[in-house]
Amino acid sequence: MSSGNVQESRTLIKPSFSEKEATELVERVFGLKVSAIRSLPSYDDQNFHVHISRSEGTADSADEYVLKITNCEDSQNPELIEVQTQIMMFLNVEGFPSATPHLTKDGNIMSLESLGTGSMTKKYMVRLLTYLPGMTMATISTNPHILYEIGKLAARLDKTLTEKFHHPSIKSLHRGKFIWNLANVPLLEQYIHALGQNSYREVVEQVIQQFKDKIVPKLSNFRACINHGDLNDHNILLDSNTASPENPQYRVSGILDFSDMSYGYYVFELAITIMYMMIESKDPLSVGGHVLAGFESIVPLTTEERDALFLLVSGRFSQSLVIASYTSLLYPENKEYLMITAKTGWKHLLRMFDVGQEAVEKIWFETAKAYMNNEPV
């Protein structure tokens, strides 16, 4: 969903391939015949939904892919894109519903391509990924069961990667000042001016200060792992049991967007997931308990990790809201997509602080405890 260092955003040029140029790219680089193509929404990359005709002129034999064109800043780090793609392939083999790349005509998983002429030429890393079917979580009414399963998924994903994935370029996931790593909440001070002077800014300043005082000194006590880092309600696809349309049972059919991956901590993934699951919920304060229960069924938290959870969720809200405001100033034409989270995000963050940490934690921890005791939730 996001780029690496927002401080370099002014030099980050989002790709601007036309559908015709994207079609030519697929046919030239991957050797496939395009039967239909359409643009997909994206944060700072460019994505196209591509239908491939296996037999020219035979539309019903089409396969579906996503053409992913990475922005020119991130394209300068092919080692990171390589390891992200290898992780997707690894997870697919491990039984997670993640996309896999279609190889180029040269047998590679990606290709560096140019757009423009002369001094205006920009280079973009291009991949063709399998298209995953399903509806995004943002389009459904969540329930305790699916929230529990998403928490479980987040823990399983990080645990599997941390314990089993090995690659020569894995060190590239140590991303330092990467703005979306939850450890870097204090870096928001560089972009907070985008909020103007209002009550929103006052809350974020409070979050940043508490984060410095209470989280940063304790980071070394949290258990480290590889984080997906962006399990939001638009990056998780679901399908349902249509046998019962009145009470559909959802299961995860796709995990999207691995561009925010970095080394972090198990409790980071949990906090990020809780925050994004709150966004569309009709009862957002209750969400955390169900996600926590699912997560702890795989990776139980330590006392210190539990104590940090409220501020970590607040920190992720602050990251999403501040960076969206800042980036929409740079790219006003993409403001509608950039500000998706802000529609309800501010309301939820302010609500958390109004209710208070102790009361919110009580809701979360008692709900999670009910699962452990096999009580109805």
Top keywords for this entry?
Phosphorylase Kinase, domain 1, Aminoglycoside 3'-phosphotransferase, Chain: A, domain 2, three-stranded antiparallel beta sheet, 10 helices, 15% strand, five-stranded antiparallel beta sheet
Q: What do you see in this structure?
A:
By secondary structure, this protein is an alpha+beta fold. The chain folds into 2 domains: 6-130, Phosphorylase Kinase, domain 1 (2-Layer Sandwich), CATH 3.30.200.20; 135-372, Aminoglycoside phosphotransferase (APH), C-terminal lobe (Aminoglycoside 3'-phosphotransferase, Chain: A, domain 2, Alpha-Beta Complex). The chain contains 10 helices and 10 strands. The strands form 3 sheets. Strands 1-2-3-5-4 form a 5-stranded antiparallel sheet, covered by helices on one side. The chain has a 3-stranded antiparallel sheet with strand order 6-8-9, covered by helices on one side. Helix 3 (144-164) runs antiparallel to helix 5. The radius of gyration is 21 Å and the shape is globular. It starts with 18 loop residues before the first helix and ends in a 5-residue tail after the last helix. The model is unreliable at 6-11 (pLDDT under 50). It comes from Chrysemys picta bellii (Western painted turtle). It catalyses: (5R)-5-hydroxy-L-lysine + GTP = (5R)-5-phosphooxy-L-lysine + GDP + H(+). Belongs to the aminoglycoside phosphotransferase family. One of its GO terms (molecular function) is hydroxylysine kinase activity. Its main location: cytoplasm.
